[in-house]
Amino acid sequence: MHKKTVRSGYIYRAQRRLVILGCLTILLLLLAGVAATLGSYPLGIAEVYRTILAGPGSGLDTEIIVWQYRLPRVIMAILAGAALGFAGAVMQGILRNPLASPFTLGIASAASFGASLAIVLGAGFAGSGSLIVGNAFLFTLIAAAAVYGLARYRGISPETMIMAGIAIMYLFSAMTSFLQYIGTSEDVHEVVFWMLGSLGRSTWNTVIVAGIILCLIFPAFMYMARNFNTLAAGDEAATSLGVPVEHVRITGMAGASLLTAAVICFTGTIGFIGLVAPHITRMVMGGDHRYLLPGTALMGSLLLLGADSIGRTIMAPQILPVGIMTSFLGVPFFIYLFLRRRRDYW
Amino acid sequence: MVKVSLDNIRFSYHSDQVLKGVSFDIDDGNVLCLVGPNGSGKTTLVRCIDRILDPEGSVFLDGMDIRDMHRSTIAKNIGYVPQAGTRIAAASVFEVVMMGRTPHMGWSTSEEDIDWTEKAIHFLGIEQLADREYNELSGGQQQKVLIARAVAQNPKVLLLDEPTNSLDIRHQLEALSIIHHLSRETGITIIMAVHDLTLAARYADQLMMLKKGQLVAFGTPDELITTERIKDVYGVESKIFRDTDAGLIVTPLKPVSEITA
Amino acid sequence: MKNSHLFVFWLLIAALAFATPASAAYENDSEARYLISQDILGYLRNADQEEPTINELYQAASLYPEYPRSINDSAGNTFVFYQPVKKVVILNNNAADALTVIGTDDLIVGVAESLKENSLQFPETSTLPSVGKWMEPDIEAILALDPDLVIAYGSWPDPEKLETHLPNDIPVIRMDFYKTETYRSEMEAVGHLFNKEENADEYLEWYDHYFDLVNERIQDIPEEERVRVYAEAGEGQSFGRRAYSTGTGLHDLLVAAGGVNIAEEYIDGYADVETEWIIYQKPESVLIWSGKGGYKTDERDLVISQYNGFTGITGSDKIPAVSEGRVYVITSSFAFGSSSPAALVQVGSWLYPSRFEDIDAQSVHEQYLEKYTQTAEDVWDEGTFYYPDGKD
Hints:
- The complex is a heterotrimer of chains A (346), B (261) and C (392).
- Chain A has helices at 2-35, 45-54, 61-95, 107-123, 129-154, 158-182, 185-196, 204-223, 225-231, 235-240, 245-267, 273-285, 289-311, 322-340.
- Chain A starts with a helix and ends in a 6-residue tail after the last helix.
- With 346 residues, chain A is mainly α.
- Chain A has a single domain (15-340), classed as ABC transporter involved in vitamin B12 uptake, BtuC (Orthogonal Bundle), CATH 1.10.3470.
- With 392 residues, chain C is α/β, with parallel strands linked by helices.
- Helices cover 41% and strands 13% of the residues of chain C.
- In chain C, helix 6 packs antiparallel against helix 7 (197-218) and helix 13 packs antiparallel against helix 14 (361-372).
- Chain C is elongated, with a radius of gyration of 25 Å.
- The model of chain C is unreliable at 19-28 (pLDDT under 50).
- At the A-B interface, helix 1, helix 9 and helix 10 of A face helix 2, strand 6, helix 3 and helix 4 of B.
């Protein structure tokens, strides 16, 4: 009798998590389906789906709108949201810190600096957009390497990594401000907008690049999910349970940085999702990373796609920056769950 | 059953040498308590045995140097129970205990893993806590969960770092008697750093006294717990009683004015 | 009479005595007389009027012909100048342009940093010392030049960064010299201030001539035949496409040229819009603003890339403006400021070629460059003021 109850609680919860994952997936597909029909070029729902089924390449107005503008944007939103959420969950896991996000290690500041450098050096126009992308990516990796180098010197613990991350963040922030100071007003404008984040530049090329990186990193992290779980017990306990703590931490950090870089070099720094999506998911389905990681990815996608869809329809044809919309959307939801939840979840 | 041997273990935190060469052998299936004043190196020694800390000198499991062993192999053989106190994010008691299966577990949870987790929970008598959030439990309950986790690990050696530190009397007794019971039932070798001499005397098969990073005495409680020893190691005048129910009782009286080296 | 009143009375007599031979030759200094009389009378009446300082009376005593003069700037402040301005510091590059037009650019002694790079537009003025950035002036540099006057934009820099640090005898005039609604009055004001009314009037005649001409030719175009224009800021201003609507210079320009802004009903000022909306709206012409190019001869590529930035967008062939070759980049140094009439004619001929067949917009621009700027003859060839400009 007793034997059955002890195990059944766990099994029930595991099944519940699978169900929630399923629900989130369905929700995401629905939202994506709706998002494809939204836009300031008036197209009926049936028309949109006919065009989708007809495939790309016809060269008609509708095909261009649906296949060249809307679909890449929707898919990019899904990929970016998933990547940011995922990276955030990993960061919170390896640093054992609820305030960690993909940007904790100074990544956002470094990417902003890289983009600013490209912009102020005159690469602010269409043709050199790839310079902005490349630079943002490069500096993100530089920041990650710098944090690793600093932390390594003092020991790869959560505290040292966070301190190193803060130092790097302030360094790049100051350098970005300096660039803004010596740049022209148009440059400053552009940098500010880059830091707000946008999905407006999504093309099939960016989708494919981001998608490939995600496809490589997601499985790698899922493989490490069990180790992330055990890491939550503390460094000592995890070591005694056979987890190579330092190795996990470094790999986690490197992977999260790569994942984040792959997204924000195209979209600019979209905040909030990497911080909040893991929390919301954890509140709903607990801290087992084998469920938490995919769940956070789905949640991140939902948040970002939702935010972007609202941002481009609520004041059409005007687009509101997605970075602002994610806060507007995420915060109330987060507060609601936070107030409602009676049990301790962190 | 496994034989644990320590050979000349030395460890320094930065420039501070905490362990100055400790060597001993432990018999199979015994409960060994490490005692000694604060700063004598008890906790450090426990962590060195598991290679949570990396000392100079060697630790042998059945004659094999654990330095040559893979981390996960060590984890399959040696379990470690830290002091309760760290929060564990969003985990139920069942999940925390199941963490003990990490060295054995594949990516997904097997039937065997769930079995072992259940067994450990039963052994510790914490069935009614199984679905609770770990962070919501009291210190005593958490300590039991951590012991259960180590039990689920199915190790041959169990290390405990002052498991009774933040517990009240009842929980102290419960925890220690479970540990003792574990040793008798399964033959696991238990090495436990303990604060309280009386409790150590009651539950230990063997006792080891540390002073300033050195092993000063090794033997049975009866052999080691004498007023001279206590004066030497702790710098305290004491009185020792023997009671049929309670066993050896150590009562400290007053600190010695001069502490002999 | 009080002693002090007596003193002032005699001072006035002395002043007028000195002035009489000089002023006899000038009949149009009634304003000057009026101003000084007002000051003195007000003081005598003991009204809440600041007494003229001894310095002011001293200055008045020398009675420059046709001074003092008073003007209002675009921030609503009134300034009185008692003698001709001899040294001017410019924090507003458009002001340098304006002073060149009325022929007083030789009075400039200090310029903003950014003007120094503009050697094609201002071959002489760009060699003058820098007084810091137009938003962050270097007060010490300004004081070192000991100017009589500083001219700055209406909204920048903050008075706390400028006026509060300058002594009373260095007034700061806030004028923009690029906004259509204030441009004319600002030109009149500086013409008056520097006693170059004739030059200012002559320029304004040219200015009005073309504004009126364009207006005349487009005003009777019926609504349905008006060209639908999309105006934007060009790539790089934001992450999307920034459309310009009511209240922006480009909007005013295209409307004055008879166009209709497709964004007018949807947004005010400027805002990012979805590209698919632009495709949906199918504008017949597109105007792209560029801050680069103009007199900066090495920035032609940047202007061209602005052009390609629009024509290259996915699905651009669906936009009539692209498929019919009616996309234009217009630079700020051409569109705003003293060259704006030429720009208006140019935009007019882009939008309604048949109605402006008889006017060669390019020669209007060249005429302007020759007459009203310091530039050399080949400046039109060297610079890129708009694109396409027929040069490649």
